[in-house]
Design a protein that fits this description.
The chain has about 180 residues and is mostly helical. The protein contains eight helices and no strands.
Length: about 180
């Protein structure tokens, strides 16, 4: 009943909490726990404003990113191939799959489901799961690829979540850095 779900409502994050806020909290927690020395202001500003991951993640911990700033970027030591491949994969997921599914299957059916038969609605629901995965993981792939092109390594954020055998395993594979952050 409704009474059993109310405690979950109190755990919900406010709508609009950004990855910027997650990053800032990560820094404060890492410093407070003694896992990271306080950063120079300029390094903290770079960490908090590093644009590739601010829209859709991954959530990069301060202790993962700030030490990378200590080593100067060497353009000859950049994983260009891996970065370009990740950006291309991300673009395919986002533009060719997610946007197509939204435009051609999901949005039309979800707008007026009563005009469709049950198999069509079921297909749209299934297409929606593919759409949200491709949309979110596509953005993440592009962010990781962009970071690689700039000489930074970000953590993996999705690990084939729809191949999970349980809800618990799904949660561990879906937006890995958010799960890790919340833990």
């Amino acid at each position: 009943g409704l009474g059993t779900s109310l405690p979950l409502l109190s755990l919900a994050l406010p709508v609009g909490i950004s990855f910027f806020v997650f990053q800032a909290i990560s820094y404060v927690v890492d410093v407070k726990r003694g896992l990271l020395a306080p950063a120079r202001t300029v390094d903290l500003a770079i960490y908090l404003s590093f644009f590739p991951h601010l829209v859709a993640g991954p959530i990069v911990r301060a202790r993962e990113f700030l030490p990378q700033l200590r080593t100067p970027r060497d353009p000859r030591d950049v994983a260009v191939g891996a970065g370009v491949v990740l950006i291309a994969i991300g673009l395919v997921k986002k533009v060719a799959i997610a946007d197509y599914l939204a435009r051609e299957v999901v949005d039309p059916v979800f707008a007026v489901p009563e005009l469709y038969h049950a198999p069509d609605v079921a297909l749209a629901a299934l297409a929606y799961t593919a759409q949200i995965y491709c949309d979110f993981s596509g953005y993440t792939d592009m962010a990781i690829g962009l970071a690689l092109l700039m000489g930074f390594v970000f953590p993996q954020n999705f690990a084939s979540p729809y191949r999970s055998g349980s809800v618990r395993e799904f949660w561990r594979r879906w937006h890995i850095t958010l799960s890790r952050y919340l833990r």
